[in-house]
Amino acid sequence: MTTVQEIYETIDAFAPFASQESWDNSGLLAGAGTQPAEKILTTLDISQGVIAEAAAQGVQLIVSHHPVIFSPLKALPVQHPVYQLAAHQIAAICVHTPLDMAPEGLNAYAHTLLRECLSLEGRTDVLEPCWKDGRGFGWTDTSTRAWTPQALAQQLQSVFGGAVRYSAKETPIRKIAYCSGSAASMLELAAAQGCDALITGDIKHDRWYAAEFSDVALFDCGHYGTERFAAEILAAHIRAAHPEVTVIAQAGADPAEICAGGEEQ
Ligand SMILES: [Zn+2]
User: Fold this and answer.
1) Residue ranges per domain, the chain?
2) How remote is the CA of residue 43 from the centroid of ligand 1, in Å?
3) Does domain 103-221 bear CATH number 3.90.650.10?
4) Which one, 177, 178, 210, 265, has least CB within 10 Å?
5) pLDDT of residue 251
6) pLDDT digits (tens, 9 = 90+) for 168-189
7) What is the pLDDT of residue 166?
8) For residue range 69-114, what is the model confidence (pLDDT) as tens digits?
9) What is the distance in A from the centroid of ligand 1 to the CA of 104?
């Protein structure tokens, strides 16, 4: 019988939990290592809908990117995902920043997706190094062609889907910084490394003005858009190490709808 602990160790081998940021809450957050894990669901977020699907399919372990417990819980209503996990006896491993930084993790995956369509040279540097072994957040790479913001945004939309917000910039874009999730705080880092653009998600209002000041074009491809690949990455690693288990990759959907205007339905 494959156990939760064995799956934990498989994940730890490619995205070490010890590499998590000090503010993170990564690891086995619900259940015990001794529980069975023969049917597993991987996902970006452990939502009520994901737990309902897992319960209906007899899943014993959910492996997610985002932590199901992040801020201290002050109450545990019945509909809360943590309560629901316990009620259905489903364990939860949440990976988060170790998956962001893993050499085969989220940011590396995005580089493989973008390399060809953005004509990147393929010589990446880590945008924000965190550890002595070189692990850190995001990457920088240089394109062999000069992009206008509009052309770059169109390419990004075709890769990430959803809506892409971007800042217009007069000068052509060649050196590109990328970090999945919510990383507009890395704007100054990207500027210091000579980047013309920073691609990320969840960009707040003031960052667009900071980008103008730094002369770096910002591209907001959405938090979900840049991280929805987590389910497939986690599933692929678990399947490779444990061919005996059943793994369901649940890509889910953006929790926010987009109103694109046009004719009223
Ligand atoms: Zn995220």
Assistant:
1) 4-98+227-250, 103-221
2) 12
3) no
4) 265
5) 87
6) 888 899 999 999 999 999 999 9
7) 97
8) 999 999 999 999 999 999 999 999 999 999 999 999 999 999 999 9
9) 16
Query: What does the pLDDT read at residue 3?
Result: 98
Ligand 1 centroid–CA 152 distance in Å is: 23
In the chain, % of residues over pLDDT 70: 98
Cβ neighbours of 213 (radius 10 Å): 10
- pLDDT of res. 229: 96
Distance 78 CA to ligand 1 centre (A): 25
CATH code for the domain defined by 4-98+227-250? 3.40.1390.30
